[in-house]
Amino acid sequence: MPTPTESLIGAFQNCKNRNCSKEQLESFLDRAKTQFAGNEAMQANIKFLESQI
Fold it and tell me: Average pLDDT for residues 11-38, to the nearest whole number?
C-alpha cells in the first residue's frame, strides 16, 4: 500500500503525464495543501511539487 507521499507524487505525475494545464496542476496542489494542513512533511512535499510546474 503506497504512503500518502507516494500517492501524492504519483497522482501529480499522472496529471503531468496527461498534459494537464498549469492551472489544473496548481488547483490539484491547492487541494492537497488543504487536505494536509498541519502536516509539515506533506507541505514540504507539496512545495517541492510546486517547483515542478
Answer: 98
